[in-house]
Specification:
This is Recombinase family protein. The structure is a single chain. The protein has 108 residues and is α/β, with parallel strands linked by helices. The protein contains 3 helices and 4 strands, in the order E-H-E-H-E-H-E. It starts with 7 loop residues before the first strand and ends in a 5-residue tail after the last strand.
Length: 108
């Protein structure tokens, strides 16, 4: 199955939870491997900068709606804390977009 035939998965993470850009790159590789294992094609991983939050999250929501994405992967719900209460943000996100949030336990 080619990447074009697999459903697209997007990712979201907070930059401030990682020590360096190398760690963010490692996360992206982990999420790519996760997507492949789940039979999905990994699209962009949206990395939120605390100084401009929630701009990246809003861009993620726009992309999910534009491309009819059905799932977004996060390392943990705490990555939503820059946007609001993580559990409430998850419920709101899933209600508004119709996409579900999938957690992949990649540290941190």
């Amino acid at each position: 199955m080619t990447d074009d035939a697999r459903p697209l998965l997007l990712g979201y993470a907070r930059r401030d939870l990682y020590l360096s850009d190398r760690h963010v790159d490692d996360l992206k590789c982990e999420l790519e491997a996760f997507a492949k294992l789940e039979g999905l094609a990994m699209g962009s991983v949206y990395v939120e900068d605390p100084d401009t939050a929630p701009a990246t999250f809003e861009a993620l929501v726009a992309s999910v709606n534009r491309y009819q994405i059905t799932a977004v992967v996060l390392p943990s719900l705490r990555h939503l804390a820059l946007v609001g209460n993580p559990a409430e943000v998850q419920v709101q996100f899933e209600r508004v977009t119709g996409a579900r949030i999938v957690l992949h336990g990649v540290a941190p």
